[in-house]
Amino acid sequence: MKLCFPVTSDQGINSTLYGHFASSPLFLIYDSVTRQTSAIANCDEKNPYAGCNPFLALRGRHLDGIIVSGIGDDALRAMNLCGYKVFEAGTELVSENIPLFEENQLCEAVVLNVRGEGKCSDEDGSSSGCDHDHDHDHDHSDECDNDCDSCTQDCVGAPPS
């Protein structure tokens, strides 16, 4: 079984989930068979300086689940269309979410279809109840320059199962 977690930095299973799936600096992939983790940059490996691109970063990966602490409706729809199931995290630590997933205790994320839901502010700038920090100041140029080479062979290929 392979699980994907949006994270700020690669600290293996001790990593903390990042609050916004689409703008996460990295994705941590956990393989339950080998109990190993690997991190891939959230970018298009062919154009890493273009910024975050979870759709191309995860394309062709065979994942049993994506576990998030926050995802917007559009990103959720896109991941579902790509064949991925997305689950709501039960805690902020990767290590604590793995057994929760294995025991079927995580809820599958659903599209809310509510304007402003899944976003942190409305168009007028008013808050939608978001309670986390948006100042993540990550520079994908270094991460992608160093990390995208490792995901090149898996970024293109067969669609997810």
Report helical residue fraction: 10-25%
SSE succession: EEEHEHEHH
Work out the helix count: 4
* Biggest pleated sheet: 5 strands, mixed
Shape assignment:
globular
CATH topology description of the domain at 2-112: Nucleotidyltransferase, domain 5
Low-confidence stretches: 121-161
Number of strands: 5
Estimated structural class: alpha/beta
CATH superfamily of the domain at 2-112: Dinitrogenase iron-molybdenum cofactor biosynthesis domain
What is the topology, as strand order, of the major beta sheet? 3-2-1-4-5
Radius of gyration: 15 Å
User: What average pLDDT do the residues reach?
Assistant: 77
Question: Short description, anyone?
Answer:
This protein has 161 residues and is α/β, with parallel strands linked by helices. 24% of the residues lie in helices and 16% in strands.
List keywords for this structure.
single chain; 161 residues; Nucleotidyltransferase, domain 5; 16% strand; 5 strands; 4 helices; disordered C terminus; alpha/beta
Layout of helices and strands, plus pairs?
Blueprint: E1 2-7, E2 26-31, E3 36-41, H1 54-58, E4 65-68, H2 73-81, E5 86-88, H3 94-102, H4 140-155
Parallel strand pairs: 1-4, 4-5
Antiparallel strand pairs: 1-2, 2-3
Biased composition (Basic and acidic residues): 130-143
Pfam family, one: Nitro_FeMo-Co
Region (Disordered): 122-147
